[in-house]
Amino acid sequence: MELKKKLLEHDKRAVARLISMIENDDQKAFNIISELFYLTGNAHIVGITGPPGAGKSTLTASLAKKLRDLDKTVGIIAVDPSSPFTGGAILGDRIRMQDLALDEGVYIRSMGSRGHLGGISKATHAATRILEIYGMDYIFVETVGVGQSEVDIMKIADTTILVLVPGLGDDIQVLKAGIMEIGDIFVVNKADKDGADKLVLEVEMMLNLRKMENDWQQPILKTIAIQDTGIDILVNKIFKHYNYIKTTGLLKSKKLKCIEAELAEILRERFIDMVYNSNNAQLDLKEIANEIFNKKTDPYTAVDKIFFELKERSN
Amino acid sequence: MELKKKLLEHDKRAVARLISMIENDDQKAFNIISELFYLTGNAHIVGITGPPGAGKSTLTASLAKKLRDLDKTVGIIAVDPSSPFTGGAILGDRIRMQDLALDEGVYIRSMGSRGHLGGISKATHAATRILEIYGMDYIFVETVGVGQSEVDIMKIADTTILVLVPGLGDDIQVLKAGIMEIGDIFVVNKADKDGADKLVLEVEMMLNLRKMENDWQQPILKTIAIQDTGIDILVNKIFKHYNYIKTTGLLKSKKLKCIEAELAEILRERFIDMVYNSNNAQLDLKEIANEIFNKKTDPYTAVDKIFFELKERSN
After folding, report:
1. Considering only CB atoms, which chain B residues are within 8 Å of A268?
2. Are residues B189 and B308 located together in one domain of the fold?
3. Structural domain total, chain A
4. What is the pLDDT of residues B138-181, one digit of tens each?
5. Are residues A159 and A287 in the same domain?
6. How far is B169 from chain A (nearest CA, A)?
7. Best residue in B39, B146, B190, B301 for a mutation probing chain A (most A CBs within 10 Å)
């Protein structure tokens, strides 16, 4: 197939095309992943998360630039719809991103919003697979992080970077207590702002309070991504973490968890599809909702009935 | 059944017990909802959402107090695990909440975290049903809101209050642009803080920019919840909104959407249960993930196989 051949020939337009097909749920794209699945699993997947305004996209762009200098190829997927990769970036940033976008060794893609199912969507997983097949050495997955999304990113990333920023107020700091488990590497970005050292100390204290799950000492780094300050050390720590999870066998267990999350996502989407796009009139959720509204049935009894009918249908 | 009888006799302990059973996925509780479902659908469900630190719980407590003065009964469900209802509240707040908790006409419950499926969980929906059966006039559902959760709350609430607060920084303000669709009523809480008037103006501007979907003019109110300032007007607007959606037929369509969301949640949880807790060895997701890791299959082919087997099983 033409598209498959182009992907194998490292034609970036094939990547763009395939990810668009994935977003449109075009089965052909998923078939290509199935056929070329043996080429997946080799990229280092790095999750970048943190509160809005922490400078995640600028940091990602700066990391990508650095990795290109080291002759590594980089894919970037911004899951967050409000990401500067889709707009909203300050001018200097935009120029840098355009430079990156023209580079054959870089592919940047915004994946719209996360699925209605909350997790990293089937489409995002699939886009990662396409970038792996294309041969990217590094794949960055950027998500805005307040709440569920940081937990989700752990399921796709080998290495997760939690980006914090001084001056987001105490309320945000409180939130952080719950997400300390997530970062393999902590970055205090915009480190030239007031409160950076205090934030580093706070993170250190929180990390010291909790018991370690393994002997990876989570580093806390200061960066000023817009000036590329601190990026060398960060890249170094990313390499180091990868090496650590590889030698300890953690990489395999992380990849397995990622595959499980991907499977669960595909299963759920398939199931929803089966229920919502069914031609079977008895599965008309709107009609059932109406019956429940009119107290002719209740949600639990209705679902019992739906499951019974799904089984009947598959006979 | 004893518990069912106690619930009908307005014994608050029955509510506590049933919601705990719901959280433990005890089928008996869901059976009681099924049996008493004809008593549901009469409460005014008010969603309270907004960024962390906006004072949502204090506002909810203040609203509850006011509604009690008007002889209305109030249920409160805090979906957010970091809610002050579970801890973290400042002292004055805690005392107020304890007062509320002792009142037979008030029931406060924290529902732990949202389900792994992102939306308002089946358990939260069910807890709302229990409170409706108990006979609460008002049910407040409080969720922390940055991202998906505000959209979720729209699916359960008849009236949604978006609580904002001055001084969370420009980054948070940017986020707001995307969530302006959600509020039926906007509240700028902690209105004695610097920037309150500016925030009101910004919200007004954003609301003026977008086209109205109906002729409900979303009010923007200033409150200082901790001092009960502005709560009278807010309660008034809540009444007014309920009256508006009732007379225009919007209430019915909102209730129908809520039921659909509830159905989808129950369906999904049931499906996940079927896949994960299956005794069928062929549905062992860990084993399948291992095969995928070893490139013996790929996620899409594997899911095809799972669906085929689910159908076989149900034969």
Report:
1. 117, 268, 271-272
2. no
3. 2
4. 999 988 765 555 557 777 899 999 998 888 765 455 455 556 67
5. no
6. 7
7. B146
